Amino acid sequence: MSARPGFPLPVPSEDSAPFWEFLQQGELRLQRCADCSTLAHPPRLMCPACGSFERDWSPVSGRGTVYSYVVTRQAVHPSFEGHTPYATVVVELAEGPRLTSNLIDVAVDDIQIGMPVEVALVAVSDEVTLPLFRRA
Amino acid sequence: MESLRNRVAIAGVGETEYSRASGRSETRLSLEAILHALDDAGLTPQDVDGLMRWSVDTSSEAEIASNLGIRDLAWFGEINQAGNVGAALVAHASAAIATGLAQCIVIYRGVNGRSGRRYGRGEVTGRRGQGAAAFTEPFGLLTPQHQLAMVARRRMHEFGTTSRQFGWVAVSEREHANRNPRATFYETPLTIDDHQNGRFIVDPFRLNDCCLETDGGGAFVLVSAERARGLKKPPALVRAAAQAGPGDRGFVDTAAVSLAPRLWAQAEVRPEDIDVAQIYDHFAPYVIFALEDYGFVERGEGGPFVEAGGIRWDGGMLPVNTSGGHLSEAYLQGMNQLIESVRQVRGESTSQVANVELSFCDTGIGTGAVILERDA
């Protein structure tokens, strides 16, 4: 049972499964090239920097800042009726990559670009933990 | 290498009425539009040997060909992504005609975008958390509107563009629609206060920043420039047509950052040579961003440019979306804007710009553009 009605749950793929498995184990890790150490998010088959197929998973700090955000004030789909307004943010991690996410402790009207945030791993079902963020 | 320049022309354009409930199938809408476009050119279905479409269009070339009674379909294809492939289709079709692979290609689009599947609700584009969407949809980022609002917010932050400036795009286009009897918002005024008082849908997008949802069909016909000169209407020569796919660009960059240098080089003209422009306006700020990223104005100058009346038919330096665009005429995903681009070259627009020689059309966030030229 999802704790976030209306919001689709992620469907892990072969490439992205470790990302979701590490979250279930309580860690935010990003895909990293085993040859040139470039981080890639979302995960992919090859390193876009050096062309290597060798990948590993690197722990990251979970700290960053709000890079951009939108506030959905009108439900775009019937399954979201009653769940607006909600904000979606893009967080730029200290390590560089950007993640789309939500803030768990900031009212939608208080969000600002540049706001420091840190990751909060939240289980939304028995199988899925999402990397959400809180004010740092 | 031989250039494509002015070797191919759009010889005919046509559309159905635009409505909220067409009462007929998307295939029927495409067929009606194709017949109008062929009639406009003085051609018949027996002249057609090529068909091309948006991949998101639901009518296959086989359905269209069998209905039209095409005997030998020599060229067909589709281009994948979303609504943004109109110019890419023109580029592919033009290359085919210029190299003799086909003689007469029809590009069509038929959509029940209001009474049928609605793009704005994620019914078409939503992927249920699969693939790359696993990293966006679980956080409520479901539709193109969400993704584009995210980029727009960051651009507002970096360049100072305002919601009120978005509003001047909507107001300018509405003025054009008020002159166009085909437009959904014909004779329906919009003021800047109306825009600013409009509710937010996905903040920073207000109601009137968002395109229409439309039922309708559109089509146009490409033949060689030489053949077009012998047909019913003056040819709209394809001076340049180019596309841009995904690439290594910044978060706020539209694809025009990659496309513009290639487009202007191919056309051998500069932005200041363009007389009139149609720009894909699924969301009003993307007109401002296109003006900036194609080089019509500098980064950060697009907002002040529209605020000063720069895109209005009445006195603007570069009239934009002269039929009312996707915000106020119809949302046929670039089709109605390509048709308007042709009409401007022919002198047939309801907001005709005087003495048009070069007519520009962006068909989606800088991922493709066509420059049409009046025959000398």
Overview of this structure, please?
- The complex is a heterodimer of chains A (136) and B (376).
- Chain A is mostly beta strands and 136 residues long.
- Chain A is 6% helix and 36% strand.
- With 376 residues, chain B is α/β, with parallel strands linked by helices.
- In chain B, 32% of the residues lie in helices and 18% in strands.
- In chain B, a hairpin with a 5-residue loop joins strand 10 (358-362) and strand 11.
- The radius of gyration of chain B is 19 Å and the shape is globular.
- In chain B, 60% of the residues are buried.
- Strand 4 of chain A pairs antiparallel with strand 5 of chain B, so a sheet runs across the interface.
In percent, how much strand structure appears in the residues of chain B? 15-25%
Widest β-sheet, arrangement of strands of chain A: 6-5-4-7-8
Residues in helices of chain B, as a percent range? 25-40%
Q: For the CA atoms, what is the radius of gyration of chain B?
A: 19 Å
Q: First CA to last CA of chain B: what distance?
A: 24 Å
Structure, briefly:
Helices cover 6% and strands 36% of the residues of chain A.
Record the SSE blueprint.
The complex is a heterodimer of chains A (136) and B (376).
Chain A: H1 17-24, E1 29-33, E2 39-40, E3 55-59, E4 63-72, E5 86-93, E6 98-101, E7 116-123, E8 129-135
Antiparallel strand pairs in A: 1-2, 1-3, 4-5, 4-7, 5-6, 7-8
Chain B: E1 8-15, H1 26-41, E2 50-54, H2 61-68, E3 75-79, H3 86-98, E4 105-112, H4 144-159, H5 163-177, H6 192-197, E5 200-203, E6 205-206, E7 215-224, H7 225-228, E8 236-243, H8 256-267, E9 276-279, H9 285-293, H10 302-307, H11 325-328, H12 335-346, E10 358-362, E11 368-374
Parallel strand pairs in B: 2-3, 2-4, 9-10
Antiparallel strand pairs in B: 1-7, 1-8, 4-7, 5-6, 8-11, 10-11
